[in-house]
Amino acid sequence: MKKTFTNQEIAELLREIAAAYIVKNEDRFKIMAYENAAASIEHATSDVKDLWDDRKLDQLAGVGPNIASYLDELFKTGKVTHFDEVKKDLPKAMFVLLAIPGIGPKTAYQLAGELKLRQGKEIVDLENMGKKGKIREIEGFGEKTEKDILEGIVRFRKGQTKEKRMLLPVADSLAHEVLDYLEQCPAVIRGDALGSLRRMVSTIGDIDIAVETTDPKKVIDWFTRYPKVRKVLDQGQQSLVRVILDNGKQIDLRLQTPESYGAMLQYFTGSKSHNISLREFALKNEMSLSEHGIKILSQKSKFKGQNYNSKLKIYQFEKEESFYDFLGLDWIPPELREDQGEITAAVQHRLPKLIEPKDIKGDLHLHSDFPIETSHDEGGSSIEEIVRKCEGLGYEYVGLSEHNPSISQHRENEIITIIKKKKALIDQINYSSEKRTNNLPIKILNGLEIDIQPSGKLALPEGAFKYLDYAIVSIHSSFNLSRARMTDRVLKALSHSKIKIFGHPTGRMLNRREGYELDWEVIFDFCLKNNKWLEINCWPERLDLPDNLVLQAIKKGVKIIINTDSHQVDQLKMMKYGVAVARRGWAEKNDIINTLNLNRFMDELDK
DNA sequence: GCCGTTTTCGGCCCGACTGTTTTCAGTCG
């Protein structure tokens, strides 16, 4: 039986080779190539194994002919002879120690060489040696380094047990708490989220925050006295302070003067690959970029602007827009900064005009407390509460889509009766709200979220469909079918004329499970041809479709619908996170079906 | 080892912080 490798495992393997080359003082660009390939594979959204099966390894950025041939050997034989050669004369323990924060390749190599670490117990042994003061005896190591290593081991263990990446809304609210505290400091002019949070990535590791100030010392002092700070990790004089909060989350604060605040926002928003590409682009025009500004590298360069700081010999930028403008680029929204062609698009002034939360006109995936008698979870808010809330959000329509009544507990007729009853209630509310409001009242649609059974059969008797305005189908069981069977299952379900939406299409649960396997090309083609819509589900653990698949879908012309899947009215506010996913997928208003006004939306529903 | 709307050869992002090494290397983002 051949061993299979996850993307994470392959990335780790490539990083080990990079680490080995670092110890061996190999060409640093070769090392970078391995690290790039590892990062690319780690962030890839298809399984590398699947890409290999389909002979599409060349689609991975950073994977060229050499690494591709090593992966080929890996999938065929379970090992790579060349990699074994590279690692042969290095202590095995060193690769284990790399997982400890603060220990890089050279330190790991030295520790593994100097200390006797038993296989399988490397980290425990290292910890014991450290406690006995043995690490400080190694040349080049001191008391402080020994202490740092011991603390690194503690952090490593915590990471092993519980620390997962935060879900976007969790990180968002945590960042706002910190920003609220910072804004009470008189020395703080303004603060902004940076990094993956500003780019609205679905999961966030550490939170980075930018602070604009003319008195960094005062801000650093203020922040280290934040009541929720457990430990200060790093503390600079001017530009950085890094802490761990009581909840174990890390916050990095970056400080900058008003003159260069725009340059810093750009620099620390990332992504890393966007910044690398941007700096390469700048270098071609003889400019060098940093968080302080832009340096002109040649005499003959022609440039513009009056923000030159002759002491520092750089151009400074208060606003990010002027930083990009200086490079000849349109301002790039943070969500697009993933090195997927946004720089070229910005040069050519053809960046997409991204969808915004205010464009949304309705929410079609909501669970009310109507007694639908489902075997899944019911909603907690009444239809009236939901309607009021949606009116407040400026929506023109709302679709109630509880789970289907359980098919094992009811006879067909009973199910039909329940659906009919819900329709009657909705008709009545629609009627009375027409009388209540002078303006156009919000329109309530009778929807349903229907399970797709493993065979592809829908969990609702045919006789019930005529009482529905539309339905969503989704998968809640049997996640492990093969890609081919799963694809058939979905297509079969989507074929029914009342089915308009494929809900949370990948089935992934962030931090918990990967999605099931589907042939997306086939799904996209089917949706395009039959006017079916793929959902971006705003549930924090889902955010599904993921952004990369949104990008592929809209490139094909497939329409997307953004729904909150709310079970309580206060969850309707999650819409902005789904919109963020769409924006990261380059979606414009026209790509999103629930930006249409009521009349046009109803036309689409009837198609 | 990868990569290409100025290149299939000749390039390849940038700086802060830390510890201990008296001038810098390692790690990180």
Automatic annotation (TrEMBL):
Catalytic activity entry: DNA(n) + a 2'-deoxyribonucleoside 5'-triphosphate = DNA(n+1) + diphosphate
Top EC group: transferase
InterPro entries according to UniProt: DNA-dir_DNA_pol_X, DNA_pol_lamdba_lyase_dom_sf, DNA_Pol_thumb_sf, DNA_pol_X_beta-like, HHH_MUS81, NT_sf, PHP_dom, PHP_phosphatase
EC number(s) per entry: 2.7.7.7
Entries under SUPFAM superfamilies matching the protein: DNA polymerase beta, N-terminal domain-like (SSF47802), Nucleotidyltransferase (SSF81301), PHP domain-like (SSF89550)
DNA-directed DNA polymerase X domain residues: 5-338
Gene3D superfamilies: 5' to 3' exonuclease, C-terminal subdomain, Beta Polymerase, domain 2, DNA polymerase beta, N-terminal domain-like, DNA polymerase, thumb domain, Metal-dependent hydrolases
One cellular-component annotation, GO: cytosol
UniProt cross-references to Pfam families, sorted A to Z: DNA_pol_B_thumb (PF14791), HHH_5 (PF14520), HHH_8 (PF14716), PHP (PF02811)
Positions of the Polymerase/histidinol phosphatase N-terminal domain: 362-454
A Gene Ontology biological process term: DNA repair
Entry's Gene Ontology molecular function annotations: DNA binding; DNA-directed DNA polymerase activity; phosphoric ester hydrolase activity; zinc ion binding
Keywords from the named record: DNA damage, DNA repair, DNA-directed DNA polymerase, Nucleotidyltransferase, Transferase
PANTHER family: PHOSPHATASE YCDX-RELATED (PTHR36928:SF1)
Name this polypeptide is given: DNA-directed DNA polymerase
Organism: Candidatus Shapirobacteria bacterium CG08_land_8_20_14_0_20_39_18
